[in-house]
Specification:
Strand order of the largest sheet of chain A: 6-7-8-3-9-10
Strand content of chain A: 25-35%
Largest sheet of chain A: 6 strands, mixed
Helix content of chain B: 40-55%
CATH architecture of chain A: 3-Layer(aba) Sandwich
Oligomer: heterodimer
Number of strands of chain B: 16
Number of domains of chain B: 2
Structural class of chain A: alpha/beta
Chain lengths: ~240, ~425
């Protein structure tokens, strides 16, 4: 394992007020993810995996404990600074694809680069490359509504990749896909990891998790198991 | 770059909900068009009244006797056009007053002082045609300029005419029409109550002032009129004076008042005459027209405000509809400014498009005559209305945009 993990959580807690009840979603998570790893986070619904995802993705901040992303402590950052971190360091892939409607595949993939302030010509080139990378070079001008679920998810992956982020966070990326599309998408993730990209994937399907190099299981806001399926050295190669 | 992207998103958003965008724009459109048209109508009516008043002579100061007839009976301006037979005997104005006013030391700001005598109920005949002019006055040459008469043909009266008691007359178009029809009256001789007058000039038409036909007039030298029609006496019906310029009308009015107070030996400060100041009439009329225009503009501005509220309403709906999209954008790194500018641009674009069409509608609508007024489009109203429509977008777009930017990404992403 590398000396400095890409993601380091220590004693992270998070609770929500749901009406009058307080829900303790995370009760003290300590977790490290090395660069180049492919981690599946598993757990039943209510185990806190979505909350963990939000914190990993800098969409939310921990109540207690700290989170270092690529060596940067995110605890005291302002909203706009968090947005910049999300833009530069993180690529999101959501269960429901979350492409911007009425905006074609290319424009969707360009979007993070626009917010990063990349010039148009370079944006074009990088977006094309990312779409080609996920096998959609012939669908760049299609609207999300004209694409199948698997294709939409691959556009979303291209959008997550285009900024060359430190980590790709995927939240149930195959949850809305049929078997064939699931295979396609998982294939893309496996390829990306083989190229050395760090991936954290949330799922409740064992079959999906089995493609990862390491499986972390959550229950009631705590890590209850952490097993390595494939050695990290092998994937980093 | 942000702006270009925001513009693209805004145009897409507007096109995605065409009917809704159109209805939203309609509010601003009507407001802008209303401002332009109503201000144009206000200005148009003001311009029309100005023209009428200017036809009466802008720098004219008319002195009436306060006793007997005077103010009001002849309408303003030329005044004293009454045909009551006894008026020349009841007037308190005399040729002495004229002499006093012509003295530069008494009234340095007067350009001309013209006594006017009215020959009441005269009948003019020419080759069997007979006509009673509305007015038949005897005066001096300065009268024409003071009363803003323009010559159509022939010549005006001269000082020699007055000095020589010349039997010459200048006729208004209405009199010419009634006596001569289409024939040229110049050089012809007409009989006025049996006395011969040669027609030396014809005046340009001034049109109607209220119910009175201003063109229904004959003007002859005062000396001639007195000797053959009214009888020679020192009294005159009015004194029509002209101030040297529009700047000195008030000073001239004061000079007239003080001069006449002294010639009439009035010490109790109760003058037996009145001085009608055309300039003050115009300016007070201007002031009231201006108030009228501002009032119309204000009413229209309120409708523009209502249009702005419509924009805000729709933008709030849009923000709610796009909550999820906002969440996505935030997740992939949109900062506050990106979200704010996206919705601001859309709001401003909506209201400016409405404003632009409103300007076109306003200018188009101002080409028609509205309630008898030919509207005059004011550049400032166009600029103002369009500017306000852009401002409306900014002001009423900022709250929805602020709300969009304040959304928390995880909640926005969960929104269905």
């Amino acid at each position: 394992m590398s000396a400095r993990p890409l993601i380091a959580l220590r004693g992270v807690t998070k609770s929500y007020a749901m009406g009058t009840q307080v829900v303790h979603a995370l009760r003290g998570i300590t977790l490290g993810v090395a660069a180049g790893d492919f981690v599946a986070i598993m757990g039943a619904s209510g185990s806190g995996k979505s909350t963990l995802m939000h914190i990993l993705g800098c969409l939310d901040l921990p109540d207690r404990g700290y989170y270092l992303l690529d060596g940067l402590d995110v605890r005291y950052l302002e909203d706009d600074e968090l947005a910049t971190i999300r833009n530069r360091k993180i690529g999101f892939v959501f269960q429901s694809f979350n492409l911007v409607p009425r905006t074609n595949a290319l424009q969707n993939v360009e979007l993070p680069l626009i917010y990063a302030g990349v010039r148009q010509r370079e944006r074009r080139v990088r977006a094309f490359r990312a779409l080609k990378r996920v096998g959609l070079a012939d669908r760049v001008y299609h609207l999300p509504s004209e694409l199948s679920g698997g294709q939409q998810q691959r556009v979303a992956i291209a959008r997550a990749l285009v900024t060359d982020p430190a980590v790709v966070l995927a939240d149930e990326p195959t949850g809305n896909l049929d078997t064939h599309s699931t295979d396609e998408v998982l294939e893309v993730f496996a390829d990306l990891n083989a190229e050395g990209r760090t991936i954290v994937l949330i799922t409740h399907e064992n079959e999906v998790a089995s493609r990862a190099g390491r499986v972390v299981r959550l229950r009631d806001g705590l890590v209850v198991a952490d097993e390595r399926l494939r050695s990290l050295i092998e994937v980093v190669a | 770059m942000i702006v270009v992207e925001s513009l693209r998103i805004a145009v897409q958003g507007i096109l995605a909900n065409r009917l809704r965008s159109l209805l939203t724009m309609l509010g601003v459109l009507i407001g802008v068009a209303a401002v332009i048209i109503l201000v144009a109508v206000g200005t148009g009516s003001s311009v029309a009244v100005q023209k009428q008043l200017q036809a009466l002579g802008t720098n004219v100061l008319t002195v009436f006797s306060a006793r007997g007839f005077g103010f009001g009976r002849g309408g303003f301006g030329g005044g004293g056009r009454s045909t009551i037979g006894t008026q020349s005997r009841t007037t308190g104005l005399t040729l002495k007053d004229v002499t006093a006013l012509r003295n530069r030391q008494n009234a340095p700001d007067l350009k001309s002082v013209n006594p006017v005598v009215n020959a009441p109920a005269v009948t003019a005949t020419y080759q069997g045609a007979s006509y009673q002019p509305g007015q038949f006055v005897g005066t001096t040459p300065g009268y024409f300029e003071a009363e803003n008469w323009q010559l159509a043909a022939g010549r005006l009266l001269t000082d020699d005419d007055v000095r020589n008691h010349a039997a010459v007359v200048v006729l208004g178009p209405t009199v010419v029409q009634n006596l001569f029809g289409a024939a040229s009256p110049l050089g012809q001789t007409i009989a006025v109550n049996g006395n011969q007058f040669q027609v030396v000039g014809v005046l340009e038409s001034k049109g109607n002032q209220g119910l009175q036909d201003q063109d229904d007039i004959g003007i002859a030298p005062i000396t001639t009129v007195q000797s053959v029609l009214t009888g020679v006496s020192g009294s005159v019906n009015q004194i029509v004076t002209e101030a040297a310029s529009s700047k000195v009308t008030t000073a001239a009015q004061n000079e007239i008042t003080s001069t006449l107070l002294s010639t009439h030996k009035i010490t109790d400060g109760q003058p037996d005459f009145q001085v009608l100041n055309q300039a003050s009439l115009i300016s007070s009329s201007n002031a009231s027209r201006h108030t009228f225009t501002v009032l119309l503009g204000a009413v229209a501005a309120i409708s523009l405000l209502v249009g702005g509220i419509g924009v805000m309403n729709i933008m709030l709906v849009t923000v709610t509809e796009r909550t999820r999209e906002i969440g996505i954008r935030k997740a992939i790194g949109a900062r506050r400014i990106h979200i704010v500018s996206q919705f601001m641009v859309e709001a401003v674009l909506l209201s400016m498009l409405g404003g632009l069409i409103g300007v076109a509608a306003g200018i188009g609508g101002s080409r028609f005559t509205i309630v008898g007024v030919k509207p005059v489009v004011e550049t400032y109203s166009v600029v103002l209305a369009f500017g306000v429509s852009a401002l409306v977008g900014l002001v009423f777009g900022s709250y929805p945009a602020g709300r969009a930017a304040a959304l928390r990404p995880i909640e926005a992403l969960r929104y269905e």
